[in-house]
Amino acid sequence: MIDDPRKADLLIGMLKESLPIQATITESLARTLAEKSPDAAIPAKCNVVDILYTGDMGGILCALDIEGTDTKTVHLVSLTHLTFDRRVPLSREIVAYQRHRIKKLKQQNDFTY
Questions:
Q1: CB-count exposure of residue 25 (10 Å: 0-12, 13-18, 19+)
Q2: Which among 26, 24, 33, 18 is positioned nearest to 85, based on CA atoms?
C-alpha cells in the first residue's frame, strides 16, 4: 500500500476546505501540458480548483485552472507534479505527502523478483 488511507482522507478534506490553492507548475509538467495544448501558453502558476483521490494507483489528483488554456479542457495532475509556496496553508502537509508517496513509488519500482 502506497498511501495511508486515513492520512490521505484527512489531507484531502483539508485541501478541499482550502480551495482554490495557488500552485507552481513544474518544468516537466509544463512540457507535458504544452504537448497536450500546443496553442496555449502555459503559465508558471495555476490554481488547484478541485481534489480527487484515485487510490494507490494515482493518489491525490488536482484539477487545475490554468489561465490561457481552453476552459473546456480539464487538467488533472498528481499532487506530486506541483510545487507550493511555503506560505501556502498546508504546504508542510502537502510536502510530507509528496515525499512519502514518491519514496513508496520508488521502493515499489525497485522491487525485483
A1: buried
A2: 24
